[in-house]
Amino acid sequence: MYKREMLKGNTETLLLSLLTEGAKYGYMLVKEIEARSNGYFRVKDGTVYPALHRMEKEALVASVWDSSTNGQSRRVYEITPKGHQMLKSLKEEWERFCRALGLIMGGSDQPHGD
After folding, report:
1. Residue 113 within a domain
2. Is the Cβ–Cβ distance between 17 and 55 less than 8 Å?
3. Which range marks the domain in which residue 78 is found?
4. What is the CATH number of the domain that holds 40?
5. Domains in the chain, number
6. Which burial class, exposed, middle or buried, applies to 48 when counting CB atoms under 10 A from its CB (0-12, 13-18, 19+)?
């Protein structure tokens, strides 16, 4: 199945979407992706953290160190204005992709040019 490849191509979109709700740390993002997809998406730290680091280099997200109540520090990520712009663009592209896919898969009553 191509599920893993489809997820890989949309990791940024998922992460940016979750971060629009507020700052989150990486493990929280991993768990939310799995929970909100009813277990369909199972991402690993090895997927999420490199994506977050890449997005931070591109100024799509920013991070700060946060001390938890048990004294451990963890990096918390939040979306930046540039990240909001990118998410808007990614969502628009996704909608165009889905419309085009629907046309091919029978979602149109338009003639096929026979």
Report:
1. no
2. no
3. 3-104
4. 1.10.10.10
5. 1
6. buried
Radius of gyration of the chain (CA): 17
Which amino acid, 69? T
Show contacts of 43-47: CB within 8 Å, 24+ apart. Answer: 43/7, 43/11, 47/8, 47/11
Closest of 25, 26, 43, 21 to residue 34, by C-alpha: 43
Cα separation, 97 vs 76, whole angstroms = 32
Q: Which two tokens stand for residue 32?
A: 């939310």
**pLDDT tens, 3-55?**
666 667 789 999 999 999 999 999 999 999 999 999 888 888 888 999 999 99
CA distance 11 to 14: 5
Domain membership of residue 112 (yes or no) is no
